[in-house]
Amino acid sequence: MAGTCWGSPRREHTPKAAIWGAAALPMAFLAWVLAPWVADRLDGPNQLPKALLLCLTAGLIWQFVIVVALVAREQRSLRWSSVRRALWLNAPRSPRTGRRGGRVWLVLPLLILGFGVEELIPEIHHAATRDLAVFLDSHAGHVFLSGSWGWFSLIAALVVFNTVLGEELLFRGLLLPRMNGAFGRRDWLANGVLFAAYHLHMPWAIPATLLDTSSSPTPRSATAARLSESPCTVHRASSSSRFRSRSSSVRAEVVP
């Protein structure tokens, strides 16, 4: 029903712009102000990538805190049944038949394939030291990770909060189910624009993310199936493959 937060018995909603600001503005501050300040106070090589890892992981954890706080305020409970309904953490539901699960899950491999193709979209030129994905895939990144289990654990935390508990849960789990009242059937598009604009901490990714919004079925499928797990799963699949490749860089120096 338009205007109703699905699965929520109460209608206490924080403005969408306020939630966006609470996620995007701290990430921008952490990336462009705090990280350079921290980098100047770190010893050794790769000070800026180290500082970005620390700051952006903290920012993603903060987004998880936002989700928990707002769901607790809205639902008056953090019971799993309430959280699952509020954040669309359910088996996918066919928009035609209303049936849950089953063959509806088959859409995920197609979404993962589509996400992989979208990763090939070129980005705006930017400093490689500010792009953690580029840095960690480089020779300098492999040297940095060699035997560095502490930093590797931090990257593992960043991956978890990036793809499961942080930005994806906030935008697809918290915001998307609550945007239908304002945007109707275009809620998925408005959500994608907000998600693209959120990337102030890495603005070179905004054009590709915006193009992803207009061409990808991921947010649309999540809305149709009332499922935030599909974009999380797609994002997680891409990140986990990179994570496994980086783990080999750590093991290479510690396994004889």
Order of helices and strands: HHHHHHHHHHHHH
Beta-strand portion reads under 5%
Number of helices: 13
Class by alpha and beta content: mainly alpha
Shape: globular
* Largest sheet: number of strands, sense, barrel closure: none
- Poorly predicted regions are 1-9, 228-256
Quick one: how many beta strands?
0
What is the helical fraction, as a range of percent? Answer: 55-70%
Average predicted local confidence, pLDDT:
76
What number of structural domains do the residues give? 1
Can you describe this structure?
The chain is mainly alpha-helical and 256 residues long. The protein has one domain (16-254). The protein is built from 13 helices and no strands. It has helices spanning 16-39, 47-75, 80-86, 107-118, 132-137, 139-145, 149-165, 167-175, 180-183, 187-198, 206-215, 218-225, 229-254. Helix 7 packs parallel to helix 8 (167-175). The longest helix is centred in the first third of the chain and has 29 residues, at 47-75. The radius of gyration is 19 Å and the shape is globular. The relative contact order is 0.16.
List keywords for this structure.
256 residues, mainly alpha, globular, disordered N terminus
